[in-house]
């Protein structure tokens, strides 16, 4: 390729990179601003910050939020997070993780938009890229802390773009790193391999499928149990139902017939699951269902809808992030395979844009245009002043939303949590957290129990350092 042709190619695609850059700024602004307003949480930003900090300090990841010295490789298999360690060593703080997440998701726009441009033209690429970048699954993810699946977004976009363009070996090369993102994504790699085989390259497809299955089996049955203090994968209990262990613990799984029953009868009920499925396909006007690439979404949908944890079923949190590249890749593939053009193509694109814009105000990206996003509550300023009084390197127990503020320079755990470090050097608690916001492990104590716990600590070994605007700061007597 000559210098002139390379320049012409860049000139024709610069706007795609500019669109990705704009989306990056939007994602980063939302997530960093939420953190600065102390609206992030121990589950999960605090945990992931402790993981990346562990890698940056040169040892295997542990999280005080999960329990004293808890080995995180026994919770989820996500060694890819070590790639963030060099950045965290330079810019130590939760913002590093949030900005990295914004960058990873924004980059995933580029291969999809480039594919749409080649197959459907520049106007279609601009519309599809924008609809993908503003989609509700992405908005929910950037509006709720940081998660390892941010790495999956560009890998899936690159793999499925290659697959859709017949570059099967390249598709495999981009799919295999998903094994290092999270233990369940090996099943996604398995399905990518099956689609590759179905599209004609049986040798490459078989290798990819076997590698994906082997990766998940190794992570679920060997690596995670080896690190987990309970000796098994901690989340088997999520497919057991309340009678078999509920949502916590390290249950031993369920019989195959029980799992099949849960995964078939339970997949379409309750209504939350149906709503999520419809919203997932609605931005593509359900055209994505005409592409075999949509099968890649099946493993994620199955484990989510078979879970006994209702939080997995809906549109909140980060759970739909890995689905968005799959759905929009299937959308592009379906449009290209149909040879859609002219008025028909414009009709599909207009419908996709209309649905995306209609859904957008219900999800976190819309916070960018809300005035309260840019205001700082006076209690936040109080909390920052009290946090500044806590020395570096000490052990702390604190409230859920304060953990991410302290995890970069202290050993921070949850106040009152079972398995937490006993007798921390410092305690800082927000006593004004209402009862209806104590539903997550980040707030293990009820309002009444927390008051009693604080009173007991003050009588038995702690001095009151400050009490302002509902925040209580205590230091252990030496």
Can you walk me through this structure?
The protein is of the alpha/beta class. It has 2 domains: 9-39 and 93-369, no CATH class; 379-476. Helices cover 53% and strands 6% of the residues. The protein is globular, with a radius of gyration of 23 Å.
State the strand order across the main sheet: 4-3-5-7-6
Query: What is the straight-line distance between the termini?
Result: 71 Å
The number of E-state strands comes to: 7
User: What integer is the average pLDDT?
Assistant: 89
Percentage of residues in helical conformation: 40-55%
Low-confidence stretches: 240-265
Broad structural category? alpha/beta
InterPro entries: STSV1_Orf64
Keywords: Membrane, Transmembrane, Transmembrane helix
Pfam family, one: DUF2079
Organism: Streptomyces tropicalis
List strands and helices in order, with pairings.
Layout: H1 3-36, H2 42-56, E1 62-63, E2 70-71, H3 85-90, H4 94-107, H5 109-120, H6 122-133, H7 136-142, H8 152-164, H9 168-175, H10 185-198, H11 202-227, H12 256-265, H13 271-281, H14 298-306, H15 323-338, H16 342-359, H17 378-387, E3 395-398, H18 403-406, E4 411-414, E5 426-430, H19 447-459, E6 462-468, E7 471-476
Parallel strand pairs: 3-4, 3-5
Antiparallel strand pairs: 1-2, 5-7, 6-7
Helix pairs in contact: 1-4, 1-5, 1-6, 5-6, 5-8, 5-15, 6-16, 8-9, 8-15, 9-10, 10-11, 12-14
């Amino acid at each position: 390729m000559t210098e002139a042709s390379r320049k012409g190619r860049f000139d024709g695609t610069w706007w795609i990179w500019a669109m990705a850059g704009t989306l990056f700024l939007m994602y980063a602004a939302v997530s960093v601003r939420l953190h600065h307003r102390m609206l992030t949480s121990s589950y999960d930003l605090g945990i992931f910050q402790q993981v990346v900090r562990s890698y940056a300090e040169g040892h295997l990841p542990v999280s005080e939020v999960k329990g004293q010295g808890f080995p995180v490789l026994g919770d989820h298999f996500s060694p890819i997070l070590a790639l963030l360690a060099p950045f965290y060593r330079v810019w130590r703080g939760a913002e590093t993780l949030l900005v990295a997440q914004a960058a990873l998701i924004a980059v995933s726009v580029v291969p999809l938009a480039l594919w749409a441009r080649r197959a459907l033209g520049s106007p279609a690429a601009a519309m599809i890229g924008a609809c993908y970048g503003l989609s509700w699954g992405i908005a929910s993810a950037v509006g709720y802390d940081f998660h390892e699946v941010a790495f999956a977004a560009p890998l899936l976009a690159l793999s499925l773009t290659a697959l859709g363009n017949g570059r099967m070996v390249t598709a495999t090369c981009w799919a295999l790193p998903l094994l290092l993102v999270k233990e369940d994504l090996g099943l996604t790699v398995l399905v990518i391999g099956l689609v590759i085989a179905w599209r004609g390259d049986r040798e490459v497809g078989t290798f990819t499928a076997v590698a994906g299955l082997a990766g998940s089996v190794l992570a679920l049955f060997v690596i995670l149990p080896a690190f987990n203090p309970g000796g098994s994968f901690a989340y088997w209990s999520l497919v057991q139902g309340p009678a078999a262990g509920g949502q916590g613990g390290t249950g031993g799984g369920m019989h195959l017939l029980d799992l099949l029953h849960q995964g078939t009868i339970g997949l379409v009920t309750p209504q939350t699951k149906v709503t999520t499925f419809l919203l997932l396909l609605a931005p593509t006007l359900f055209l994505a269902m005409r592409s075999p690439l949509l099968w890649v979404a099946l493993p994620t949908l199955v484990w989510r809808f078979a879970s006994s944890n209702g939080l997995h079923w809906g549109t909140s949190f980060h759970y739909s992030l890995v689905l968005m590249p799959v759905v929009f890749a299937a959308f592009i593939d379906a449009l290209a395979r149909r040879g859609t053009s002219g008025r028909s193509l414009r009709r599909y694109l207009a419908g996709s844009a209309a649905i995306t814009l209609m859904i957008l105000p219900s999800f976190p990206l819309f916070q960018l245009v809300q005035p309260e996003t840019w205001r700082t509550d006076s209690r936040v300023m109080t909390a920052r002043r009290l946090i500044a009084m806590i020395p570096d390197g000490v052990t702390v127990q604190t409230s859920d939303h304060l953990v991410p503020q302290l995890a970069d320079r202290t050993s921070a755990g949850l106040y009152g949590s079972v398995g937490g470090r006993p007798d921390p050097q410092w305690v800082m608690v927000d006593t004004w957290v209402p009862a209806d916001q104590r539903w997550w492990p980040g707030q293990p104590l009820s309002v009444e129990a927390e008051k009693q716990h604080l009173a007991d600590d003050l009588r038995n070994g702690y001095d009151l350092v400050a009490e302002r605007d509902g925040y209580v700061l205590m230091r252990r007597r030496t």
